[in-house]
Specification:
Order of helices and strands: HHHHEEEHHEHHEHEEHHHEHH
Number of helices: 14
Number of domains: 2
CATH topology of the largest domain: 2-enoyl-CoA Hydratase, Chain A, domain 1
CATH architecture of the largest domain: Alpha-Beta Complex
Strand content: 5-15%
Largest sheet: 8 strands, mixed
CATH class of the largest domain: Alpha Beta
Distance between the termini: 57 Å
């Protein structure tokens, strides 16, 4: 059974009634329920539009966390061929919460050209064992150091980098701190700021704090319609300000963490639309939308002189948070 979010239950109940009517009519040729089915279909469509076109910020957070939502390796498999996953940071070990390697981006599917890129991103698990192994997509320092190694490899061979952000944050365990979690993330920020090849960042689900930013510095920041990106999760913000999680919806509103908020504030460059109901309702359509956006921006950045590329990247992040004081 599909995982239902609280606000989706009225729609699911109505869809179940519609399915019952259709099944009843199919079983009894003497019964004509065409008018009733048509009326209920209209109600279902109206309710669906009402729910998904008027989502609150907290509801978008819930969709971004949906367990059936496509993850990094799903995008890599759909958008590329010949992906070779590379392992290890050459210092401590491998981190399964962050995956990456070279692949051929199939730009020809989107009116562009095929090209070798370095793809990497956070990877959550589908079942209990995978979630434990990948720590729900929360990397340890070796994950960020692996990402740094792969990005420097891409720069060595002059290949663009494409990253997928989907994490509740960097892993907060004691051992992660002992091995230099903050240093690993900070060093990645420095390396990405100076990387002499194009970087495309795609926020596909959750983008929490430094855990996301550790692979989130790029020339183009794309964000899915129902993803979220913030310095802190709504629950943690509520816990700090109100000493409990009861105000998470208020925190989500205050944080302005959705794609429309962030494009208005200049944090991201493009919102990638999702199928109604979220990316998990039609993964193929979502892969196509993301692939088209990546191809378009890679084409736009191709051939840009390195000095211009780095200057533009620096100016982009320098402009964030600028404000005017009016007396």
């Amino acid at each position: 059974m599909a995982h239902l979010l609280d606000f989706e239950k009225p729609l699911a109940d109505l869809e179940a009634k519609l399915a019952e009517l259709r099944a009843f009519e199919a079983d009894d040729d003497a019964v004509d329920l065409t008018a009733q089915i048509s009326a209920l279909e209209t109600r279902v469509d109206t309710l669906r539009q009402s729910i998904y076109r008027g989502l609150t910020r907290w509801q978008r957070v819930q969709i971004a966390r949906h367990p059936e939502r496509p993850y990094t390796l799903d995008y890599v498999g759909a958008l590329s061929s010949g992906f070779v996953e590379l392992h290890g940071d050459r210092l401590f070990g491998d981190d399964r919460a962050l995956v990456g390697g070279p692949a051929t981006f199939r730009g020809s599917m989107f009116g562009s050209r095929d090209r070798t890129v370095m793809m990497l991103g956070h990877q959550k698990g589908r079942d209990t064992n995978q979630r434990r192994e990948r720590r729900f997509g929360m990397p340890n320092p070796e994950g960020y150091r692996k990402a740094k190694r792969l990005m420097e490899m891409a720069a060595k061979f002059g290949k663009p980098v494409v990253t997928f952000l989907d994490t509740p944050g960097a892993y907060p365990g004691l051992e992660a701190e002992e091995r230099g979690q903050a240093e690993a993330i900070a060093r990645n920020l420095m390396v990405m700021a100076r990387l002499p090849v194009p970087i495309i960042v795609v926020v596909i689900g959750e983008g929490a704090s430094g855990g996301a930013l550790g692979i989130g510095v790029g020339d183009r920041i794309l964000m899915l319609e129902n993803a979220w990106y913030s310095v802190i999760s709504p629950e943690s913000c509520s816990s700090i300000l109100w000493r409990n999680w009861d105000h998470k919806e208020d925190a989500a509103r205050a944080l302005k963490l959705t794609a429309p908020d962030l494009i208005q504030n200049g944090v991201i460059d493009e919102i990638v639309p999702e199928p109604i109901g979220g990316a998990h309702h039609d993964p193929s359509a979502q892969f196509d939308a993301v692939g088209q956006a990546i191809a378009r921006h890679l084409d736009d950045l191709e051939g840009t002189p390195t000095d211009d590329l780095l200057a533009s990247r620096l100016a982009k992040f320098d402009a964030m948070g600028a404000f005017e004081e009016r007396v």
